[in-house]
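We both want to read discrete structure tokens more fluently, so let's practise on a single case. Once you have written the record down, we can walk along the chain together.
***
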Amino acid sequence: MAGLSEETYDGGPVAALRRIAFLMERGREETRRIQAFRNAAAVILPLPADEVVARAEAGTLTQLSGIGPSTAGVITDAVHGRLPDRLAKLEAAFGPLVQGGDEVRARLRGDLHSHSDWSDGGSPIEEMAFTAIELGHDYLVLTDHSPRLTVANGLSVARLQRQLGVVDAINEHLSESQFTLLKGIEVDILDDGSLDQTDEMLAQLDLRVASVHSKLRMDAAPMTKRMIGAIANPRTNVLGHCTGRMVMGNRGTRPSSDFDAKAVFEACVEHDVAVEINSRPERRDPPTKLLELARDMGCLFSIDSDAHAPGQLDFQQYGCERAHAAGIDADRIVNTWPRERLLEWANPQR
């Protein structure tokens, strides 16, 4: 049933449905319910606008497979220029995430850490790309997991090679836009500091985030050696969520790994590797004291969403607020850089 809102809305039904799904993801609502709105948007997207209007007028939208009463109500409101009640409630509930950091967010050109349903993300690659465009990004780096992380469906060499072809096809489709989907990986840092992917495959990528996901309680000395080994690898561009901590969330909490942060950040400066400000609210990684230490030691940074669903791409706002509070200069944040500068930095050997 259509809502009774008197507030006007001129975004159209597809935009309304996608925005609802986006906000539900940001609020971490049930995936099945979120997908109903994305599916409804996909159903009406290819239909002529006058057919959608006619069905809304006649009350026959639910005769279309994939359109239920809730999504039909949103469509009906939108085609009549009314703000759908569901959208209004979600905007009120999941509006601005934080106060502050807007200046930093305005400088960001893209996001260097995101996941799709090829590994442990919940949405297709193209959905992540389209949402990044809607958020105003110039680029998004797709960084699905490497093979050792089997719990996250990490990509073998063969699967990653196939994924690169999909990225090429998406960029061909988007060739008239200013946006580029960049080829990347979140590559596991193995126990000895090596990277969990062949050098030949890593060389084909635009950017590489290296992260520790296993044996997080390793003693400080071997953990430090492990991290520095990965940082020294010429393929590494970004050190992902460096402490591995969890401060909240449905997976429970987890303390920070023990390592010599000064030595690790010195290695980042020496090898021109950015320290990730991981924006997921359950991570807030690195902790404030380590973020300030990395700042004072001259590190570069990358503010990343680590999104596993399109609505989570907006998590970057959390990291922007933290970067602003720490007084980090925007030019030291590598994803404020234009795409060409970013790619030259990430691939000096090319």
Q: What stands out?
A: Residues 36 and 66 are 7 Å apart (CA to CA).
